[in-house]
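SAMPLE LOG
Freezer: B-3
Tube label: C17
Construct: single chain, 120 aa
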Amino acid sequence: MDRILAGAPENSTGALTIVALAQEADVPRNALTQRHTDLKNEFYQRVQARGATPDVEVRLRETIKKLKKTIANKNKELKQIREDVPALVRAVHQLTLENQELRKQLELPEPNVTPLHRRR
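STRUCTURE (predicted):
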């Protein structure tokens, strides 16, 4: 713990994480997260006491920022889609009416039309 906090790791990347602490101590990560939670808590307290932010917290804050941006973009997209729906419904309705009118015209007999040649 002291080597990581001093910035002189020997067996890890020196990141302010439990994974790096476990690598530095040459123990499995779950030893710190499950059996020796007191050491894990002490490590995070010492990191915070130095005014540093643990790498896990930094990554989580970055992820939260990205997710908030994604949510904002999706909300904007959803708002636009909701605004487009009435116009699309009107267009479908208009096309339906035109289609019905054209079908009616096809059913009418064609007066005074003589074909010039027969289709085979």
